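User: quick one, sequence for these tokens?
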């Protein structure tokens, strides 16, 4: 589970993080370093190994690479939270798309499975918007697709994205549901991960012959 816009602080929110982490799970909070709001909180099973790396070069959004180590494969989940653009932060949609293009280009040659997801605060459903057209072209030219085609927010816009490779068939059951937890909806999905091969050990029976 990945919670975007967690609003958790770097100091003083240990009790909240513990409350959000069920028994048998681990969490790693990535709070916004300056100001309030933002932040990402990944929560995962104890037996899974994640290597978490903040993506600090981008200014218009908060990004975190979560690399899942599994015996059968390695999966990179890129969790993103993009603050709404404002006169104060000056993070225009044009600036965001330039940085987002740099982000996806940095993973194009990666041989591992790549999933980009998060709260983008960008109306992907506005099909006549020139920025949306530019984004769709950007994804199509890179053999990527945005899999969410329904509202993810109470105001009926698609603000949360789930981007994967066009030919990725191991991800299925992507669903959007209003769990009445916040103004954003919950996105769930399933990744087919094969079980590691178990080497069979042949039993060796030792026969002892008694001398006459």
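Assistant:
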């Amino acid at each position: 589970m990945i919670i975007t816009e967690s609003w958790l602080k770097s100091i003083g929110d240990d009790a909240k993080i513990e409350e959000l982490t069920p028994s048998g799970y681990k969490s790693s909070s990535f709070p916004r370093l300056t100001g309030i709001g933002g932040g990402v909180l990944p929560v995962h099973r104890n037996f899974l190994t994640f290597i978490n790396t903040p993506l600090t070069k981008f200014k218009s959004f908060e990004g975190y690479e979560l690399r899942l180590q599994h015996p059968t494969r390695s999966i990179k989940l890129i969790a993103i939270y993009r603050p709404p653009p404002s006169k104060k932060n000056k993070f225009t949609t044009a600036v965001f798309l330039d940085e987002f293009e740099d982000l996806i280009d940095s993973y194009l040659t990666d041989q591992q499975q790549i999933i980009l997801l998060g709260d983008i605060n960008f109306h992907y459903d506005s099909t006549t918007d020139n920025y949306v057209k530019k984004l769709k072209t950007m994804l199509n030219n890179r053999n990527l697709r945005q899999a969410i085609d329904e509202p993810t927010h109470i105001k009926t816009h698609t603000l949360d994205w789930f981007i994967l490779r066009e030919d990725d068939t191991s991800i299925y059951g992507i669903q959007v549901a209003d769990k009445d937890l916040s103004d954003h909806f919950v996105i769930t999905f399933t990744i087919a991960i094969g079980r590691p091969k178990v080497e069979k050990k042949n039993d060796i029976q030792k026969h002892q012959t008694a001398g006459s």
